[in-house]
Design brief:
Layout: H1 2-18, E1 23-27, H2 31-42, H3 47-61, E2 81-87, E3 93-99, H4 105-115, E4 120-122, H5 123-132, H6 143-154, E5 165-166, E6 177-178, E7 197-202, E8 208-214, E9 235-238, E10 242-248, H7 250-253, H8 258-267, H9 272-286, E11 292-298, E12 303-308, E13 312-319, E14 326-331, H10 339-343
Parallel strand pairs: 3-4
Antiparallel strand pairs: 1-7, 1-13, 2-3, 2-8, 5-6, 7-8, 9-10, 10-11, 11-12, 13-14
Helix pairs in contact: 2-3, 3-4, 8-9
């Protein structure tokens, strides 16, 4: 038994020392998710396995209340889930949006990739597909999510995401009808609390994968799907370059495809940190009050991050020179010197 244990440890050490730049990085200080993904990688499994199992930990733990069941109830009080996963080798993608009554969103997303020719399934139809693939239908409500919803109703449904409607959404729960004469943005443009887990992993074969999982926005309009399950917006991976993932105000961020943009900047030789900064700056140019962050990882194992709308942004990472998962912080900046000359 002792000899076998020694051999296992030796093989893991040998794997780490001679393999590619095995790395896992994810948004926010969700260190248990990082640790799980790392254990999958060091066992010799694929980057796709690592991303799926790492994000699954956050779904089970309900990380920060913004991932998995029992969080972010919509206007009707229901929790729905968004998730996506991408293979950087093949560019295959599987995603689900507005997934109802199924807890394992990232695994359903991977099932879309494995067992269909589609990229994205949504709503009740995604639930039906999941059931066909053997996933169990469950109630996603918890006492906590019901309390969040009931408390929100008691405050005249504040905040919410309605605009240009009657009655006034800043004072009423509706039901709403279009108001042609009220053409102004919502007073809640900078609502925070979009803590999606976005994860990137490079395995021993040098392949990279990216993925996300979230329960979206508190009090969202039923049917809303954010950036998280959209390839190029919430996540992106390309074996020839690297990958990126985003977190924050998905309704704004998905308009700029920041994950794809970061990868394309790295393709031009830009560092992961600068690539993330440039992608964030594109958004700030049009939405100066938005809240969000991007993590980037090149295929050499170098990583970076950038953020806006908060003081600083934490992310979790482990590479082969690190004895354990480390939480890194990046200071957020309102403006990158000289960025206008680059972005035009």
């Amino acid at each position: 038994m002792a000899a076998r244990t020694f051999l296992n440890v030796f093989l893991v050490c040998l794997f780490i020392s001679i393999g590619h730049s095995v790395v896992v990085i994810n948004t926010w200080p969700f260190v248990n998710a990082t640790a799980k993904a790392w254990s999958v990688l060091t066992a010799g499994d694929s980057c796709l396995d690592a991303v799926e199992e790492g994000c699954t930990v956050c779904e089970i733990e309900q990380c920060d209340g913004t991932v998995g069941y029992g969080g972010s109830p919509d206007e009707s009080g229901e929790t729905t889930l968004d998730a996506g996963i991408m293979d950087g080798l093949t560019h295959d993608v599987g995603s689900v949006g507005g997934l109802r009554r199924i807890k394992s969103a990232i695994s359903v997303a991977r099932a879309v990739m494995k067992y269909s020719k589609h990229t994205l399934l949504v709503g009740d139809s995604a639930t039906q597909f999941a059931k066909e693939m053997g996933f169990m239908e469950e109630d996603l409500h918890t006492n906590r999510s019901l309390k969040i919803w009931n408390d929100w109703k008691k405050t005249e449904c504040q905040p919410n995401f309605r605009k240009n409607v009657n009655p006034n959404p800043s004072k009423s729960c509706g039901p709403y009808k279009p108001e042609k004469n009220r053409l102004k943005n919502s007073d809640n443009d900078n609502i925070t609390g979009h803590d999606t887990i976005g994860m990137l992993a490079i395995d021993s074969h040098g392949n990279i994968a990216g993925g996300t999982s979230t329960n979206g926005l508190n009090h969202k309009i039923p049917g809303r799907v954010g950036d998280s399950p959209i390839a190029g917006a919430g996540f992106y991976a390309d074996n020839t370059v690297g990958g990126a993932a985003a977190t924050g105000d998905g309704d704004v961020m998905m308009r700029f495809l920041p994950s794809y943009q970061s990868v394309e900047y790295m393709r031009q030789g830009v560092s992961p940190t600068k690539a993330a900064q440039m992608s964030i700056s594109r958004i700030v140019k049009y939405y100066p009050t938005f809240n969000g962050a991007v993590i980037s990882l090149n295929i050499k194992g170098e990583y970076g991050a950038a953020c806006h709308g908060m003081k600083r942004f934490p992310f979790s990472v482990r590479g082969k020179t690190m004895p354990k998962v480390e939480v890194k912080y990046v200071d957020c900046v309102d403006k990158i010197p000289g960025i206008e000359d680059i972005l035009g």
